[in-house]
């Protein structure tokens, strides 16, 4: 049975480009749908956050303001409630042992732009996982966590790799717009990654060897399925 470390942001706010503070958290569908698919396939999933802080769900991900129907919101709430033991007592990210896991899985919401994108400990963990060929999967703004991984000379560990992430156009259409602290797609390109995005809000997953990335919440299930497929091929 595969063992997967799901790393969730502990941030509940984000400083925007204009200096104002915006409430945020993890995106409900990305945690709930991903976790459900992974567990249904028999994988063991541990949840870790920076500082073992209980993660906050982004309120927008559970109502119409975030484009989520009430039916879907009820489903996500119910599943997250079933994970309450794990969410209330996550593992401290700094203390996890990579050797215990076959894969790392990072869901989004805007929150990772606050903490995971700048977490040097996470960066070392991701670098080690990639060097060992372990599966590294990230979804939507969770792909920002990859930015924490740098080479000894200051380069981007995942430069030259092909991936996807929450698209700039999606940020403009239904995200934070021009007030976003940074456009993730553009920054990944600047750091040397090859970014391939599908149409806005399309189910888009890119697999580059052990690196699996999903574009947006609509790609949650497919990203988890691609992770399972990669693990099954080992």
Automatic annotation (TrEMBL):
Annotated DJ-1/PfpI domain ranges read 29-229
Gene Ontology cellular component terms for the protein in this record: cytoplasm
This protein's UniProt keywords = Glutamine amidotransferase, Lyase, Stress response, Transferase
Question: Which domain of life does the protein's organism represent?
Answer: Bacteria
Any Gene Ontology biological process? methylglyoxal catabolic process to D-lactate via S-lactoyl-glutathione
Quote the Gene3D superfamilies the UniProt record gives: 3.40.50.880
Tell me the protein's name. Answer: Type 1 glutamine amidotransferase domain-containing protein
């Amino acid at each position: 049975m595969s063992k997967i470390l799901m790393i969730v942001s502990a941030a509940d706010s984000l400083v925007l480009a204009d200096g104002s503070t915006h409430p945020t958290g993890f995106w409900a569908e990305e945690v709930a749908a991903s976790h459900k698919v992974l567990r249904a396939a028999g994988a063991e999933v541990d949840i870790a956050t920076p500082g073992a802080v209980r993660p906050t769900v982004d309120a927008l991900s559970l109502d119409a303001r975030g484009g989520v129907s009430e039916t879907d919101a009820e489903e996500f709430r119910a599943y997250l409630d079933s994970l309450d033991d794990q969410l209330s007592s996550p593992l401290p990210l700094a203390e996890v042992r990579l050797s215990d896991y076959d894969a790392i899985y990072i869901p989004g919401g805007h929150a990772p732009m606050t903490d995971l994108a700048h977490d040097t400990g996470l960066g070392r963990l991701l670098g080690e996982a990639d060097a060992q060929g372990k599966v590294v999967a990230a979804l939507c703004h969770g792909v920002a966590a990859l930015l924490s991984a740098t080479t000894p000379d200051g380069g981007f560990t995942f430069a030259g790799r092909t991936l996807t992430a929450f698209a700039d156009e999606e940020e403009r259409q239904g995200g934070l717009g021009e007030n976003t602290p940074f456009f993730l797609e553009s920054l990944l390109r600047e750091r040397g990654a090859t970014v391939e995005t599908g149409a806005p809000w399309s189910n888009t997953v890119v697999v580059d060897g052990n690196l699996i990335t999903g574009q947006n919440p609509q790609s949650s299930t497919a990203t988890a399925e691609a992770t399972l497929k990669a693990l099954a091929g080992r």
